[in-house]
Amino acid sequence: MSDGKVIAVVGATGTQGGGLARAILDDPEEGFTVRALTRNPDSDAAHALAERGADVVQADLDDQASLATAFAGAHGVFGVTNYWEVFSVQREQAQAANIARASVEAGVHHVIWSTLEDTRKWIPLHDDRMPTLAENYKVPHFDGKGEADGLFAEAGAPTTYLATAFFWESLFGMVARGDDGVLALTLPMGEARLPGIAGEDVGRTAYGVFERGDELIGSRVAIAGEHLRVFEMVATLSEVLGEEVRYQDVPPEVFRSFGFPGADDIGNMFQFKHDFEDDYVGARDLDVVRSLNPELQSFEDWARANKDRFGV
Ligand SMILES: NC(=O)c1ccc[n+]([C@@H]2O[C@H](COP(=O)([O-])OP(=O)(O)OC[C@H]3O[C@@H](n4cnc5c(N)ncnc54)[C@H](OP(=O)(O)O)[C@@H]3O)[C@@H](O)[C@H]2O)c1
Question: How confident is the model at residue 205 (pLDDT cuts 50, 70, 90)?
Fold first, then answer.
């Protein structure tokens, strides 16, 4: 029964942290409770968590002291940063360092840091098959997180490094009707496998890591829900949405030129996943993920449950 181990969840109002918060709230017998961190305890998402029994507290990733206060007395911390809000590796890493140092200051037993690969270990800056961005990075939103892994080790935080994958929810903005009226998914992935996961399952898998106790402290756990090729994904989407969804395969340089904020970063990301497919897929053992999260969703199950969110 409950020994009330508090998990302080950064990003509890968002996708990954929300998945973790709901996993804990759904399983009260396991003995964990949620402390949900947010900048705005008055948001609808924060109210929804509070109504379900989470302790909602105000904290800001840019303010280490606010994190240390929010982490006080907690058994675990789930740490996530949102690159797409700050568009700055420096700022994202400063936030990661705040999580790491505040966790140590608060004497937390177990930290999960939501990270990604530092792609420069595969493709150094001088390799010109993809452009270098922001002077020091190939895939800023990946490299910054991967490099920040070292900040947790440096701070002495007892950390599990949870390397995530493409959230299938990202497809909502990507499946679009072309001039010919046919739905298309445009990606520069060729025939390579694309590890993907339901956002909710990131948090549920993090919950499985906390349930294991100390076992995975110091380890890297890379996750995905399935490793599908894009033509397999569009076949499933066609069936689920009840109309053809075409795969429009474009070269990475074309994707990088699309002009939306971060198109170059995301184009480089897909090129990295394509060019280093075996390493990127191989790091993500689906049996391990299922052992941590027995309810891991397949792409088809996720698509059926979420088909109305495509808005097409
Ligand atoms: N989309 C993908 O396919 C994908 C795949 C892998 C990894 N990622 C990574 O996922 C990260 C975002 O995670 P997500 O999708 O779970 O987040 P999200 O749904 O976009 O929500 C962002 C969360 O971060 C919190 N937050 C942001 N800035 C904060 C601050 N200064 N202080 C305190 N809380 C702050 C927000 O809380 P409040 O607003 O309530 O304060 C919110 O809960 C990104 O860094 C991205 O690179 C994305």
Answer: very high
Tell me: the pLDDT tens digits for 156-184? 999 999 999 999 999 999 999 999 999 99
CB 141 less than 6 A from any atom of ligand 1: yes
Strands 245-249 and 183-187: parallel
Q: What is the pLDDT of residue 4?
A: 80
CA of 242 to the centre of ligand 1 (A): 32
What is the reported pLDDT for 34?
Answer: 98
Q: Which two tokens stand for residue 256?
A: 């990088």
Task: Give me the domain span that covers residue 28.
Answer: 5-310
Candidate of 78, 80, 172, 265 to mutate for ligand 1, largest count of ligand atoms within 8 Å of Cβ = 80
Question: The pTM is what?
Answer: 0.98
Q: Is the CB of 98 under 6 A from ligand 1?
A: no
Residues 211 and 31: their CA atoms lie apart, in Å, by: 10
Residue 128 neighbours by CB under 8 Å, 6+ apart: none
Residue 58 near ligand 1, beta carbon < 6 Å: no
Tell the residue nearest (CA) to atom 12 of ligand 1: 82
User: What CATH code is carried by the domain that includes residue 257?
Assistant: 3.40.50.720
| Atom 11, ligand 1: residue with shortest CA distance | 82
**End-to-end CA separation in angstroms for the chain:** 46
Number of compact structural domains in the chain: 1
Residue matched to tokens 């994958």: 165
